[in-house]
Amino acid sequence: MIAAQYFQRNFTINDLGHLEIGGCDVVDLAKTYGTPLYVLDEQQIRANCRQYVDTLAQLYPDFEVVYAGKAFLTKAFCGLLYQERLGLDVVSGGELYTALQAGFPPERLYFHGNNKSREELLFALRHQVGHIMIDNLMELETLIQLAKETGTRPRVMFRLTPGVEAETHAYDQTGQDDSKFGLEIKEGTALKAVKLALQSPQLRLVGFHAHIGSQILEIAPYEATIGVLGEFLATVREKTGFLAPTLDLGGGLGIRYNKHEVPPPIREVVTRIVQKVRETLGALDYPLPRLILEPGRSIVGDAGTTLYTIGNIKEIPGIRKYVVVDGGMTDNPRVALYQAVYEAVIANKMNEQLTEEVTIAGKCCETGDMLIWDLLTAPPAPGDILAVLATGAYNYSMASNYNRLPRPAVVLVASGRADLIVARETFEQLVQNDLIPERLKISAQTIAQ
Ligand SMILES: Cc1ncc(COP(=O)(O)O)c(C=O)c1O
C-alpha cells in the first residue's frame, strides 16, 4: 500500500482492498471497459485548472490560462476546458479540427507548431483562430502571403528562443540556443521578424511567446526566461516603438511521477512568475501585458492512471522477475522515449504487503518495451489489475498502433460516475484505411498458383 495517496487526492481503498479513483472501483472499470484502460480523474483535472486560474486571478489584472492540447486532447476534454474557462493551444490541423468539432470558441485557440502547412494555416484562417503563433521567418512570409490571398488579418504572436536551458531530459528542452523551435533573440532574427510583421498590413502582432521545455521541476529557468524576454521587449520598444499587449510564457511545469521527481506546487510557480514579471517590467517602466501560461502536463498528468491486466510472469532465477501486461510502449511510449520512471500498484491488492520486486514489461516486440524497472509490489498473479500512476499526459496523445495493437479506451471518473470519453479502437478500425491493389488481392486463384 504505497505511493497511491500522495499521487492523487481522489484515491481511496475500498472494503474489498481495491483502488478507487473518483469513487469508482478500478477493478470494476477494468471489467466493464477492458484493459488497457486510461482512467482520468475529473476532479483532479479541475483542481489543477483552478490552481492556475485562481492564483492568477488573485495576482494579476489580465491573464489567460491556455491548456496545451498535445498533453491530452479529445472532444469531451475540450468541453471540460471550456467549463473551466481555459484557452487551448493546438499544434496541428488534427488538434484544431478536434477543438472545432467540440465547439470550442476559435477566438480562444492558439495555433502553435514549427511547421504548419499551408493547408493548416488556411484552415486556421478560415476558422478565425484567435492567435497564430509564428515560429520562424519562413512561416512569417507564408502567413503574410496566405492572409493576402484570403483577405484576412490574423492576430499573431512570435515564438521566441530565449537561450535558456531548462534542466530536464534533453528531448524535453526547447528554449536553448540550438533549438528547432522559435525565432532566436540573440542572433537578431526575432527583431527582424517583428519589423517585418509591423510593416505588413496583413498581420496584427499582439505579442510574444516562449516555451522552454517540459517536466521542469524548478522555477529559476522561468525567471531567467522572463529576464530575457523583458530585455527583448525593451529592445523592441526602443527600435520600433511597439509595446506588446500579450506575453505568453509557455508551459512546462513538471509533475510527480515518482518519489524523486518533486515539482513545486502550481500556486508557488505562478506566484513567482507573476512576481518576476512585475519586477522585470516594472524596472523597465513597461506596461503590464496580458499574461498567458500554457500548461499541459500539470493539468492532466497526475489525473491519469492506466489500468492493465497482468498476463504472463517470467522469472529468471537470480536475475529478474518479468511481469507482463496487456499494453506497453504503444499506450505509454514515455519510458522508451525519455526513460521516464513510473510508480504502480496492484489495484486489487491494495492492502497487501509489498514483498516482491518485479519489472513490468509490455507486450510489444521490442526489448525497450518496458514500463517500470524494479517495482516493489504485492505478489503479482495473472489476472491482477496493475494501475500505473500519473499517466494522464503524453500517453494517450502519444499512443500508437505498433504491433497493430488497438488504442485503449479513456474513461473520465468523478463522484462514483464513469463516462467513456474515448471508445477502444477495434480491429476493424485498424484495417479501415488499408487498401489492396488488384494484383495483391489474395484470391483462390493466387493461392492456387
Ligand atoms: C508551445 C508549447 N506550449 C505548452 C506546452 C506544454 O508543456 P507541458 O505539457 O510541459 O506543460 C508545450 C509542450 O511541449 C509547448 O510546446
Number of helical segments with 4 or more residues: 14
Report the β-strand fraction as a percent range: 15-25%
Structural class call reads: alpha/beta
- How far apart lie the N and C ends? 62 Å
Do you know the CATH topology of the largest domain? Answer: TIM Barrel
Total number of distinct structural domains:
2
Give the name of the CATH superfamily of the largest domain: Alanine racemase
Poorly predicted residue ranges: none
Q: What is the gyration radius calculated from CA atoms?
A: 24 Å
Topology, number of strands:
21
What is the overall pLDDT average?
95
The shape is globular
Largest sheet: 9 strands, mixed
Fraction of helical residues: 25-40%
CATH architecture of the largest domain: Alpha-Beta Barrel
> Which molecules are bound in this entry?
pyridoxal-5'-phosphate
- The CATH class name of the largest domain reads Alpha Beta
Characterization of this structure:
With 449 residues, this protein is α/β, with parallel strands linked by helices. It folds into 2 domains: 4-38 and 303-431, Lyase, Ornithine Decarboxylase, Chain A, domain 1, CATH 2.40.37; 42-300, Alanine racemase (TIM Barrel), CATH 3.20.20. It is 31% helix and 23% strand. It is built from 14 helices and 21 strands. The chain has helices at residues 4-7, 26-33, 42-59, 75-83, 93-101, 118-126, 137-150, 189-199, 220-240, 266-283, 297-300, 334-338, 427-431, 444-448, and strands spanning 11-13, 19-21, 24-25, 37-41, 63-68, 87-90, 109-111, 131-134, 155-161, 183-184, 204-209, 246-248, 290-293, 304-316, 320-325, 344-346, 356-361, 370-377, 385-389, 409-414, 417-422. The strands form 3 sheets. Strands 4, 14, 15, 16, 17, 18, 19, 20 and 21 form a 9-stranded mixed β-sheet that branches. Helix 3 (42-59) packs parallel to helix 10 (266-283), helix 6 (118-126) packs across helix 7 and helix 9 (220-240) runs parallel beside helix 10 (266-283). It is globular. The termini are far apart. The mean pLDDT is 95. Bound molecules: pyridoxal-5'-phosphate. Pyridoxal-5'-phosphate binds at residues 68, 70-71, 89, 112, 211, 214, 250-253, 294-298, 393.
